[in-house]
Specification:
Layout (H helix, E strand, L loop, with lengths): L2 E8 L3 H13 L2 E8 L2 H10 L4 E4 L15 H31 L4 H13 L1 H14 L2 H10 L2 H9 L7 H14 L5 H9 L4 H27 L6 H22 L17 E3 L2
Parallel strand pairs: 1-2, 1-3, 3-4
Helix pairs in contact: 3-4, 3-9, 3-10, 3-11, 4-8, 5-6, 6-9, 6-11, 7-8, 7-11
Length: 273
């Protein structure tokens, strides 16, 4: 006797639908299916419940799988985490020399500190690459972004340090480079792992592009008038990094060894070829 299987199929091609149903029947299932091809119909069918299997074609003109129920959360987590790390990177790359100069440093000092920051990312990225395989993605991101806090405090208060200002600024630059600015090693991997294989290419491109609009364009534009204020400049970077550190921990999930398990429980979407 065939095993009953209530199946929701997201598909716009009648031929592909017949192929999927026929394959399931050949596998020994008595298929009771419903076909949908729009996001509204998909959401309504999910609300009805009772599905044993959901099969989705991710290439539908009227269906945005990146924002489908069950995937939306991970798309947002990946973008926000990427945008947070990217903001620290681009503010440092674009505005840090200008900020230091406007805060009273010599031109050579401003560029020297920026160089130290980015030189520190070389060992930092190697360390983070090792860490993310041992601790997992989420906690490695939390470490990398939150551990920049002491360095940013040193850099924000260096102008108050008198004879120790240079040491404070240099130490802060090393910490910032070794931690937060080295986090792209983990963040980019974590972003791509928010999407199942069929979505990973477009999901990663969309996430990176959307994140860079904020991190590389809006954030520097909004921050530029305030770079002369050390507390405002470094304080903003600190707040952004702390938000980025807690987003994957509080709202994300670990992706090591779970590349296909990125949807909500009970939402095992599979790509229909």
């Amino acid at each position: 006797m065939s095993q009953p299987l209530n199946t929701l199929i997201v598909e716009d091609s009648a031929d592909d639908l017949l192929f999927v149903v026929r394959s399931l029947k050949q596998g020994g299932y008595a298929v009771n299916y419903q076909r949908v091809d729009t996001e509204a119909d998909f959401t309504a069918a999910l609300a009805e419940g009772g599905w044993d299997l959901i099969i989705a074609d991710y290439h539908l003109p009227r269906f945005s799988a990146l924002f489908a129920p069950g995937q939306l959360r991970w798309t947002v987590v990946g973008i926000l985490t990427s945008a947070s790390a990217g903001t620290a990177y681009y503010l440092s790359a674009i505005l840090l020399p200008k900020a230091l100069i406007e805060q009273g440093a010599a031109v050579t000092t401003g560029f020297a500190i920026t160089t130290i920051v980015f030189l520190s990312t070389i060992p930092g990225k190697a360390f983070n690459a090792l860490l993310m395989e041992r601790w997992g993605r989420r906690w490695s991101i939390a470490y990398a972004l939150s551990s920049a806090f002491p360095g940013l405090i040193l850099m924000a208060t260096a102008h108050l340090g008198g004879d120790y200002a240079g040491i404070m600024m240099t130490t802060g630059a090393i910490i910032l480079g070794f931690t937060a600015l080295s986090s792209f090693t983990i963040v980019r991997v974590y972003l791509s792992e928010q999407f199942p294989t069929a979505l990973r290419g477009r999901g990663n491109v969309f996430g990176e592009a959307f994140g860079r609009i904020f991190a590389g364009v809006l954030a520097p534009f909004l921050m530029e008038p305030h770079v002369g204020n050390a507390f405002a400049f470094f304080g903003t970077i600190t707040v952004v990094l702390l938000c980025g550190a807690f987003i994957p921990v509080l709202f994300g999930k670990e992706t090591v060894g779970q590349l296909e398990a990125v949807t909500e429980p009970g939402m095992a979407l599979q790509a229909a070829e």
